[in-house]
Specification:
Pfam families: CN_hydrolase. The chain is of the alpha/beta class and 246 residues long. It contains 5 helices and 15 strands.
């Protein structure tokens, strides 16, 4: 399986502009014949909790139809982040587009303390069955710090763990260590897709990464450049491409 993680510099609250940038990243991933591309936490809005209620939507939002079209036509899974709503509740969510399938919403189950009171807690664990050999568990940022989340992924037979995050320059090294330990403990290939630039008052750290199932770092993007990191799980090779679509 060819897995891409995207490292982006978000446009604060500007969903149409972020959609445009996402489409360009997806085009590059398609040219690489990727099977999946995963973007950072709340990638379509930036990590902006104070705007979340205003920007929240649902997986059926017509603005997102373009992603389903790209998924269907290019046989690629696309996972991007946006706040979603149900009644008066707002969630930190990942919308997952699969070729010719109903789109899925995965909502963050373990909130960072500052998110409590703004967002509601998701209650539906999710794994994506790509084929018999690749079962993917998505994680959203702070979830990687809760051992219960990765343990549950393993109990659901996941062997690939993809964390969609906003990680700041002050927190990234600690989370890199945690993700390496998750890979080693659960014998999973682990990915992290992070921002560069600024979002939500944080200076974002980049360093989007992939680890093998022994917890060894395979490859990593830098701390200041937008780009794609792709890993071929079958043939064990990576490819990095620097991008600037802003």
């Amino acid at each position: 399986m060819k897995i891409c993680i995207a490292q982006t510099n978000p446009h604060k609250g500007n969903i149409p502009k972020n959609i445009k940038v996402h489409k360009q990243f997806i085009q590059t991933a398609t040219e690489l014949q990727a099977d999946i591309i995963v973007f950072p936490e709340l990638s379509l809005t930036g990590y902006e909790p104070e705007l979340a209620k205003e920007l929240a939507t649902t997986q059926s939002d017509e603005r997102l139809d373009e992603f389903q079209y790209l998924s269907n036509n290019n046989k690629i899974i696309i996972a991007c982040g946006i706040p979603t709503k149900k009644g008066n509740e707002v969630f930190i969510s990942m919308i997952i587009f699969q070729p010719n399938k109903e789109r899925l919403t995965y909502s963050k189950q373990h909130l960072y303390p500052s998110e409590i009171g703004i967002f509601s807690i998701g209650n539906a664990p999710l794994v994506i069955h790509f084929d018999k050999e690749c079962i993917i568990a998505p994680a959203i940022c702070y979830e990687l710090s809760n051992p219960e989340h990765s343990q549950n992924a393993k109990l659901n037979h996941a062997n690939i763990y993809i964390a969609s995050v906003l990680n700041s320059v002050n927190g990234v090294d600690d989370d890199i260590n945690k993700l390496s330990n998750i890979a080693k403990k659960h014998n999973m290939t682990v990915f992290m897709a992070n921002y560069i630039g600024n979002s939500g008052g944080y200076v974002c750290a980049g360093k989007s990464s992939v680890w093998d199932d022994n917890g060894t770092l395979i490859d990593q993007l830098d701390s200041h450049t937008e780009g794609i990191l792709m890993y071929d799980t079958k043939n064990k090779w990576t490819k990095k491409i620097n991008l600037n679509y802003n």
